Amino acid sequence: MVGAMKALWLVVLVSCWVVAAPKRTVLHAARAVLPESGKVISPAWLSIENHRIASLSSTQPEGEVTELGEVTLVPGFIDAHSHLLYVEAATADAMVGEATSLDETDRALRAVMLGKQALRAGFTTVRDLGNSGRSGDVGLRRAIAAGWVEGPRVLASTRALAPPMGQFYRLAPQHLALAEQEYAVVRTPEQATAAVVDALAEGADCIKVIVDAGRNREVDAATLAAIVTRAHQAKVKVAAHATTSEAAQRAVAAGVDSIEHGYELNDATLAQMAKKNIALVPTDYPIAFYEAFSANEPPEAQAAARAQFAVFRATSKRRLQRAVKAKVPIVYGSDAYMKTALGDRGREMQWVFEAYAEAGMSSLEILRALTSTAARQLGIDGASLAAGERADIVALEGDPTKDVKSLSRVKAVFKNGERVSND
Description:
Elements: H1 2-20, E1 24-33, E2 40-41, E3 44-49, E4 52-57, E5 64-75, E6 77-82, H2 94-101, H3 104-120, E7 123-128, H4 136-145, E8 153-156, E9 160-162, H5 177-182, E10 183-185, H6 189-202, E11 206-210, H7 221-233, E12 237-242, H8 245-254, E13 258-261, H9 267-276, E14 279-281, H10 287-293, H11 302-325, H12 345-358, H13 363-370, H14 372-378, E15 393-397, E16 410-415, E17 418-419
Parallel strand pairs: 1-5, 6-7, 7-8, 9-10, 11-12, 12-13, 13-14
Antiparallel strand pairs: 1-2, 1-3, 3-4, 5-15, 15-16, 16-17
Helix pairs in contact: 3-4, 3-12, 6-7, 7-8, 8-9, 13-14
């Protein structure tokens, strides 16, 4: 009788184990690309279990198969410079209009829409770098993580640390409070240290600093050093908006983790970035984007706008070429925030692929900037197809190792192993 009871309990335990066994989903595709090595696995059978990648091979494992057809599997894309809570028209005072015409609820609801567009374009993770009001990006991150809304994983920065008036073009004295809504204004090392502490308390995953805001408004070397010191004590990375050569040099000397934009980087600063493993996040767009954008200007100003954009584009292209040659880590960033007729936010984020290709980056180099290099420089996982990694996966039409346009032909997106709806 005792033996029979033991046998019965064994059956019950085994049954419970079978019921509790995690579901395994298997994605079947024509091929998969491992960005870091460039290896192509064909055919590709990728299994997912408990929201993680269980295996990737050219032979079929056990599990419920999802047939994806003639597509290429790659890790989910990372945009290291996004602004999901911000949309700007092409006017000098657009930031004032954004800050005064919409309340926090308006911006949050619009951000949900923009986040969905980004996710469906293949971006499963974004680093949101400011212009989100008072910690709107933290709220968006929480809502997405809790499953209340659909969107990419968000790394929040809260308000960017900035010189007086932030990036507002101009503000009358009675309206300076608008700057405090969007920026943590820092004038001294002591204020900078306090601002970093406040940002961390509000939930920042990273710190952004506006090193040069134009019109002779800049963060000095001592204040930059204080920002980096306090952030690194908390093991948080610092992204530095630096457009001029002098600002970038100052930020690199302070030990920031990435230079955002860096349009005027010189070779000496690029060499220091390579030596210190400081990433460049080139927020570049192809000439076709700028030509289309110049159509927003009055007819009499369009020719001058096209000429100005052409000079700017040529300069930024040469800067990226020199950065690649200097072996600076290149991390993908779109800085998408413009209101245009060239597609939704997800499509705007994809335009940058073509700019990198115009500068001579190969499709595989661009894919690395979008995935493995971005993850390594940002200190996150989920940008590999290796077993144990988070199952953030994009299925692309065509072969992205041969055709950069394939990166924009997204057929399916999986975040945490769950297929993203196209509704």
